[in-house]
Amino acid sequence: MTASPLLVRFDDGDRTMADLLGGKGANLAEMTRMGLPVPHGFTITTQACREYLAKGQVPAELAALVTSAMADLETATGQTFGAGDDPLLVSVRSGARFSMPGMMDTILNVGLTDSSVQALAARGGERFAWDCYRRLVQMYGRTMLGAEAAHLDAAVADACAGAGVADPTALSVGRLMDLVTHQRQVLKEQTGHDLPQDPHDQLRRSVEAVFESWNSPRARLYRAHEGIPEDLGTAVNVVQMVYGNTGPRSGSGVCFTRDPATGSPVPYGDYLQNAQGEDVVNGSRQTVPLAALEALEPTAFDQLMSHLAGLERHYRDLCDVEFTIEDGALWILQTRVGKRSPAAAFVIAADLARHEVITMDEALARVDGHQLESLLHDQFDDQDGLPWVAAGLPASPGASVGEAVFDSDSAVSAAAEGRAVVLVRAETSAEDLPGILASCAVVTARGGLASHAAVVARGFGRTCVTGVEGMAVDEAARQAHLPSGVVIHQGDVLSVDGTTGKLYAGPLPIRPSSVAAALADPSDEAPDAVVARLVGSVRQILAQADSRARLKVLANAETGPQAAQARRLGAQGIGLCRTEHMLLGSRRHLVERVIVGDDRPGALLEIERIAVDELTQILRAMDGLPVVVRLLDPPLHEFLPDCEDLAVQAALEASAGRVDPGLRARLETARRWHQVNPMLGLRGVRLLTVLPELVDVHVRALVAATHGLRADGFDPRPEIMVPLVADPAELAAARTRIRQHLEVPGASGATVPMPIGVMVELPRAALRAGELARLADFFSFGTNDLTQTTWGMSRDDAQTSFLSAYRSSGLLERDPFESIDEEGVGELVQLAIERGRHTKADIGLGVCGEHAGDPGSIHFFARAGVDYVSCSPPRVVIARLEAGRAEVLGGRATTDDTR
Ligand code: ADP
Ligand code: MG
Ligand code: MG
Asked: 93: Cβ below 6 Å to ligand 1?
């Protein structure tokens, strides 16, 4: 028989045909080929559905194809469809290319009519037959009625209440008959037609209804959310019914070939005696664990175990399976590669590779950075059912509980007393750094994923939620009003989930990440065997990633402990050390003194002393590995007092008849240096012409730290980079200035070679990369600023002001600060690489900036030919994993959605 593209029998299909047969149909055909006990059936294809949806009627040829396939089904089963002594019944099951659990309809027991129900009763008993009939009317009715199906549920609830039973399977035959009558009345009232009494008519209408369910509102919503194309359509599988509801020797189950939560290699599942279809998953009755099936039905159990092992070998992965036992005989009704927890993904991939079912490269391809990330931070043990009080952007993952405080000083003093605090601010600035460090979590009303709070919190591994819409922070009153009406006062306990962006009032139990602890400290013993296996699996896959990766992973760090942590996590150096971070908090006044000119030499000396100390620690922690130090790049306003604050103070003084000359001078300076647009103002390399001494100190400090460490027998590898360069002339001037300091010899008389690089973070720098390459040993792409300046969007407030609206209205698919904008910013990166290499073939190429820790962006940088990415220390392992995956997956998509 020649196969039609509209209808394919299970005997004629296989798993490669999922586009046409849908996932369920393709796997039913595959299992049929494998010789598994699958009931007979056929698939009406997605193409038939697409034609139906386009024309509003089933394709003309389909009726004859179905008639002939049904005739074959009757021959194969020896039964007659919906008639005779032993009526054949079928299920009509939706099944699209991509799994959409529960989104479309399935109708069981199609073919039952007022007369065939009698025949079925004669064969299997009245209770069984009428149980099937009420299920048919229920599912058929639900499919026809859509949202109005609640009326049918009410009929079932009434029947149960009337009989005093919890669940319709416990109804007597008489009550089941009454229920069917009642349900059919509802159906007639709501749709104008009764359950068709011609089985073929029932089948035809059921198939059309399942086609229609592709366009149900919930299915559309699900597809929009999951990014599944709208035009695929669903296949419809017509399957000979087997019955799990004939009595205690029958039942239905769902299971996995391994534990999908832990990855433990033992089949796992639930079974329910005397049950059909969804009973086992809808929670109406108590199921038993799969292991209990062994005692109930030993033969079927053994068969099932052997089929599960066979399926896993065949699919080379965890599978989930739906099965039914009818009077002791096992039937397999569905399989697919199963969903699993992030932990199970690692354990299963490593285990299958160890047993040589898959290669290590495949294992690496089967996990991803998002899964690893979720294993690395603390989580709330159980937040289900607990109401959250506000939600914002998930800016830095983790789970933290602490008392609310509303300013940095309170955070610091509470932390000094050993209390856990959550810093709640309208937004944060450099002044808040000590408070952020003292807190376990930061919550801001404004700001996006690249805002100050978000970047700093991620860098230091603090939980953070930004852009909590509608939250009004009243710092003076020490309280925050949430849109839900809840008011948070200083001292109130908050639970902050940085992974979901949700806030909870009160403490939630926390589960710390044992994986993070084990990766950061190999000597740390795992608390139990399950964790030990997980950690072993993660290590094994990371080792594979490292062996594959061409992209190196460096870290951003400003302190010795951060650098040490990064090294333990596998960082191959520091790609970005932000010198201005050494001057925040209580050291801020030093910069102000330099600017104001108030004991400038003393202040400079102090800044240099601090820098020598910090840089020595970092270089020592990264002994033998590169440490790229960026010259001072502060938005200057962050170091100066606020004009308005000072003006208010001065006015108060004046009205009290006092004059404070110091205050006047500070106000004047603040006014003189005030910039309307500081992020586009006096920053980066521009400082060199205005305040060169302030930049010099860090070069001198780096040279001194290097000499010191060399004298102590260390092998420091310092490099310098110049930020915010737009023009080669700027870089040339900076180089000349830097070199003067490099020529100063150390105690041994030797000078230190120090590569000098340039940050490419302005579009003009990317365009002038050919010239810049003459003057630079390496480029470091600062993709935060490059994104900000290419799009002309502020990274500090674009997310809260309009980006989320852009995304929800479909104007923008992804936040360009989160995931690199390949077509725009990415093209500038590629262009700069091309022009830079044209001048200097071996020019070093790095990326520092938030994108360096984003899985999708890492793949882009690997393709672009970058040498290294530099990300915050906690993201180093994620970047390592993705750097390896980038090579293994090549040009393929980063997420494999067919699995
Ligand atoms: P879903 O896609 O929502 O899982 P299914 O089409 O798999 O829907 O069917 C729903 C339930 O009915 C499942 O538990 C399935 O095992 C059961 N079922 C489907 N077809 C048959 C059949 N021919 N005989 C017995 N049970 C069936
Ligand atoms: Mg199913
Ligand atoms: Mg920058």
From this structure: yes
Is the Cβ atom of 106 under 6 angstroms away from ligand 1?
A: yes
Half-sphere exposure of 560 (CA within 13 A, CB side): 13
CB 263 within 8 A of CB 340: yes
For ligand 1, atom 14, the nearest C-alpha belongs to: 277
- Catalytic (active site) residue 452: yes
CA 625 to chain centre: 32
Residue of 567, 542, 547 whose CA lies nearest to 557: 567
Helices (H), ranges, 85-198: 116-124, 126-145, 150-163, 173-191
CA angle 89, 92, 98 (to 5 degrees): 150
Does residue 810 come out as left (phi exceeding 0), alpha (psi in the -120 to 50 range) or beta? left
* Residue 600 CB neighbour total at 10 angstroms: 15
What does the alpha-carbon distance between residue 656 and residue 669 come to, in Å, rounded to a whole number? Answer: 23
Residue 101 CA, ligand 2 centroid: distance in Å: 8
Tokens for 414? Answer: 């509470």
Are the beta carbons of 250 and 327 closer than 8 angstroms? yes
Give 181's contacts (C-beta < 8 A, 6+ positions apart).
Answer: none
> Is 160 in the active site?
no
Token duo for residue 156: 């079932």
Q: 458 near 395, Cβ under 8 Å?
A: yes
Q: Where are the alpha helices (DSSP H) in 282-407?
A: 293-296, 298-315, 342-354, 360-365, 369-376
Give 573's DSSP letter: S
Q: Whose CA is nearest to atom 20 of ligand 1?
A: 91
Question: Residue 333: helix, strand or coil by DSSP?
Answer: strand
The rounded distance, in Å, linking the Cα atoms of 749 and 739 is: 16
What is the pLDDT, as a whole number, of residue 283?
66
What token pair was written down for 478? Answer: 């020490």
> Could you tell me if the CB of 324 is within 6 A of ligand 1?
yes
In whole angstroms, give the CA distance from residue 107 to residue 93: 6
Angle at 232 between CA 231 and CA 233, to 5 degrees: 100
From the list 81, 62, 63, 82, the residue with the least C-alpha distance to 72 is 81
- The β-bridge partners of 218 are none
CA distance 404 to 326: 59
User: What is the torsion angle, in degrees rounded to the nearest 10, for the CA atoms of residue 601, residue 735, residue 727 and residue 791?
Assistant: -70
DSSP string, 107-135: EEEET--TTHHHHHHHHH-HHHHHHHHHH
Binned average pLDDT, 10 residues per bin, the chain of 899 residues: 84 96 98 98 97 94 97 97 96 93 88 97 94 96 81 90 90 95 94 94 96 89 84 96 95 93 90 90 80 96 98 96 97 94 94 96 95 87 75 87 95 90 90 87 85 77 88 93 92 92 91 85 77 93 97 96 95 97 85 85 96 98 98 84 84 86 84 86 93 94 96 97 98 96 87 94 98 98 96 81 78 88 97 98 95 94 97 94 95 43
Q: Do you know the residue count of the chain?
A: 899
